[in-house]
Amino acid sequence: MKSYKKGPHPRARGPDIRGAGNIMHRFANPNRFMRLSQRAVPWFAALTVVLLAAGLYLALVASPADYQQGETVRIMYVHVPSAWMAMFCYSGMAAAAAVGMIWKHPLADLAAKSTAPIGACFTFLALLTGSLWGKPMWGAWWVWDARLTSVLVLFFLYLGYIALNNAFDDPARGAKASSILVLVGFVNVPIIKFSVDWWNTLHQPASIARVEGPAIHASMLWPLLVMAAGFTTYYLWVLLVRMRGEIVAGKIRALRLRQVHGL
Amino acid sequence: MDSFSSFLNMGGHGGFVWPSFGITVLVLVVLLVTSLRSLKARESTLAKLRGGATETGRGEATREA
Amino acid sequence: MTDFVGRQLVCVRGGRVVFADLGFRVEAGGALVLAGPNGSGKSSLLRLMAGLAHPAGGVLAWGGEDVAGDPATHRARVHYVGHLDAVKPDLTVAENLVFWAALRGGSDGAGARTRTALEAFGIPHLADVPGRYLSAGQRRRLNLARILAAPAPLWLLDEPKTALDTDAAGRVDAAVASHRAEGGMVVMSMHGGSLPEGAVVLDLAAFNAGLEAVGC
Amino acid sequence: MLNPLLILIRRDLRLAVRQGMDSMMALVFFVLAVVLFPFGVGPEANVLARIAAGVIWVAALLASMLALERLFQADYEDGSLELLVLAPVPMEVVVAAKIAAHWLTTGLPLMAAAPLLAVLLGMEAGGFAGLLAALALGTPSLSLIGAVGAALILGSRRGGVLLSLLILPLYIPVLIFGVAAVDAAAGGYALQPHLLVLTGLLLAALALAPWAAAAALRQAVE
Q1: Using CB atoms and an 8 Å cut-off, which of residues 17-46 of chain C contact chain D?
Q2: Which domains, from first to last, does chain A contain?
Q3: Which of A171, A237, D10, D69 shows the smallest number of beta carbons within 10 Å?
């Protein structure tokens, strides 16, 4: 796939492209990324399928039931990795936004924009599986447990990012505004976590059993780690696919602008 | 697992374990499929635009993405 | 002699290369007129000069020093008049003017300077009229009076004479001429009309011909 | 450097007084929102007294956000924001002036009305001091964090709803400790730790908000 070359034009009148060329390359020419991601996507896809298949087998069949909770403990093998991924994606977005802001690299902004929906899905799954796990354990679909509440707030932070990112006509504006938002949000996550935990202990009768309880037995740790690894490679796979989509959308926008300005 | 039915039953909690795994897989697959489909759709629009561009373009050598 | 120079400037807006490898030079007392069709980047260049936006490449230098190094002092040297007139409907003409003059540190004798500024643009009689009653031309005159109320060496005027009648246009030319006489610099974009004498014309069309948009 | 801050605050206050409507609207919304609760929850005194602090705080939070959407919008639309970015005054000072003006026109009236509403909901006498102290420390944080949201949504398509989605999650710590302070005061417990946490939140907001809002404004006019 050859890079997008500039058309020949009369040298005498046109400006010296070399100066603009390397600037353009650094800023706006993602073809190297397109080539690399083209090769990486199949690997991540294969890894994800293998890991998730093994993980599901370990979680559903090979691991023992919990002496207290019985079979419902298996929900942990999707709930906990989802919650981990929710946090991991949000931190990834904050890091990408910081890189995008400091070094002004558009690929970082695209990475943050592409990560958001994936992170939001993982957060939603963490909430859903948490609720499905809570019903048999605590008898209620939703319990204002400190962790679940923090994940709920994180879900709103994701929605805020996605809404702000798409609220502008010019995608570069959306990227810059949402980068600032995710950095402000990231700084607030520990503050929110602290205040929700404190609020939870204030109103929380101590009777609710803590979920982790004793250290996890090895036979339960393996499915957890394999599922977490599977989720991570899944994230990288969908991330690259979505980033390629964003880059192609950028090229379409540029071509449409060129038609308008008839260069 | 001695019998498949008890595997499905999950010690009485099947109603919670299976939906958890089921919805998780469903959401991940839907997210993946929509991402792939939107990529394909955009690539075809780009190809169409580029195809169109060379006709109305300045007759330079055709460019390909 | 301080001058304002731009070298190999590249401007990218919304993923499109507006212009590349653009250079210019204005010395004290000089005037630079930006010409070119709509969308050729006249406003973008003025906004780069003012420091509202940052060039994708190239250098802006004031008296040989890179402007990006010390944006605060550069902002103090610049008056920018864009398409919008920044007139508050609930404040009177005088209050609008005194606010902008005071913000630029012109607090000593601000009253005197605002009166002369209003007289220079022919609207002293409107001093106590709230902004909401002004016509487009009067708002533009108030906006232009702002740059007289608090002196600054570099004037960046984006099509200053739109919505102005011949009398007001004449006053703009007079203000520009006297500003240049005192050693000030003016960069203005224009659509036809009389050029200030001795002005250098920069045709932006030459800097964006043949540039394809490089897909982001 | 203080002079430009005062000039900016004076202009914004003058505008707010002459427009008048914005701050009044926030106050009217605050009173209305609180008055609605008895109709929903029922007039039993003990129920209302128990939820009084929470109701007042949530309504104060929503009311201060109501007036925030327009914080930078008017300047953005008439071109003043561009000139403020170009003024030789640091952008953080411009933002601080705007936030101070917003707090004076919205935060203070809310604090004035809160005790009256506490009476309406039958809050215990002890809670009033706690309520005022908590609001005094909490409402500036609301203005500070809200200003970041107001700057971020400039020029976007759906301003109002988007603003609430962006900043309400960030309001949660202030809400939690604000209500806790009032409950502690009403219940006769130690009020001081809660006020200290609220002060901590305020200082954090003072450090973070002007920088973030200034960055948002700069890229809004780019």
Answers
A1: none
A2: 41-205+221-252 (1.20.120)
A3: D10
